[in-house]
Design brief:
This protein is of the alpha+beta class. Helices cover about 45% and strands about 20% of the residues. The strands form 2 sheets. The protein has a 4-stranded antiparallel β-sheet with strand order 3-1-2-8. It has a 4-stranded antiparallel β-sheet with strand order 5-6-4-7, sandwiched between helices.
Length: about 250
Amino acid sequence: MSGHSKWSTIKRAKAATDAKRGQLFSKLGGEIAVAARLGGADLETNYRLKMSVQRARSANMPAANIDRAIQRGAGGTNETDLFELTYEGYGPGGVAIFIDVITDNRNRSVAQVRNVLDTSGGHLADSGSVAWLFEPRGEISLPLGELEFDEIFMAAVDAGAEDMEEEDGAVFVWTRPDRLDAVRQELVGAGIEVEKAELGRLATSPVDLEEREAVQVLRLVEKLEDLDDVRRVDTNLNLREEIIEAYATA
């Protein structure tokens, strides 16, 4: 898990320093709108919406933007509908890539994703080609702050967390999908600040690549994540420490 943690830390630092806040808010707004459309506008009964709004607030997204996204999803505006899609593909070295997209234009999204894959040593694949290489999981991240790791560990384990790790002042907790909110609530109830809680994927068969190809994969992931419609990218690349360091210093 350590490579995943360091990769997440690098992406968090990038998000904090990037001049792409507008794009971030747009992506978060899409997540909120889709969650509201699927489960309604009530945060107390719509768990997914609650998690999406929490992420938006953690990113300092204005309350007015959040409310507008909820209204859009719940049918309170005349804006174009959003679609939630997944694309599957392969990257350099045959690494499996799973891409989550929220878009108002299917043709634009698939064209952009295909172009990035084709120009980065990968290609788009048929639906179901790589999905079987991943299993769902809950992911929680939080700052360590002045708390003791053991304190967070005990609260998380008592609530049903399966694994956790501390790295560079951040703590990462992994849960079964159905225990994500229970673990989050347990941590919050213990006075622990939760930065992000979301459903993700765990690669069941990580692939090892040489440094050059592995860095190419991470650059491909970055290009995909920079697309306006792309919400999340998962791969089955084994994120070894030296790979992360090589990417960070490239």
